[in-house]
Specification:
Elements (H helix, E strand, L loop, with lengths): L1 H20 L13 E11 L6 E7 L5 E7 L3 H6 L12 E8 L6 E9 L12 E2 L2
Length: 130
């Protein structure tokens, strides 16, 4: 009976540990190249496991379209030197990111350059968000 209990406890532990270390891939994105995108920030979500920037971009016809950029977790972004106040709703930003494979309006964020004109918040300085 003790061996059965030990075996069950070991199995449960392995299942829990493997689920805790599992992470989804970035298979939805074309990670072979960066694309440049520029737009106006609508929302910034500093959440785990991935932060998000939602922004508006003018397409080739001049129509404004919504985009979403997936970034790293907040602590990783901050370790890269980014402060929460560096990018706020209403700010213009330039991004270098990996486009969604299906061509929809989204990307895996690599780098952000704020273009809001405020030197104290890093205007014109590209920082890593992944």
């Amino acid at each position: 009976m003790k061996l059965k209990t030990f075996g069950l406890a070991t199995l449960c532990t392995l299942v829990l540990v493997s689920r805790g270390t599992a992470h989804h891939s970035h298979g939805n994105y074309d990670v072979t190249q960066f694309i440049p995108v520029q737009g106006t920030v609508k929302e910034v979500h500093w959440i785990n496991p991935h932060s998000w920037i939602y922004f508006e971009v003018k397409d080739e016809t001049g129509k404004t379209v919504q985009w979403a950029a997936e970034a790293a977790d907040p602590s990783t972004i901050q370790r890269n030197g980014v402060k929460r106040e560096d990018v706020k709703p209403g700010d213009m930003i330039k991004l270098r990111c990996h486009r969604l494979r299906d061509g929809s309006n989204g990307c895996l964020l690599g780098f952000v350059t704020p273009m809001h004109g405020d030197a104290a918040r890093g205007n014109g300085i590209e920082k890593k968000w992944d």
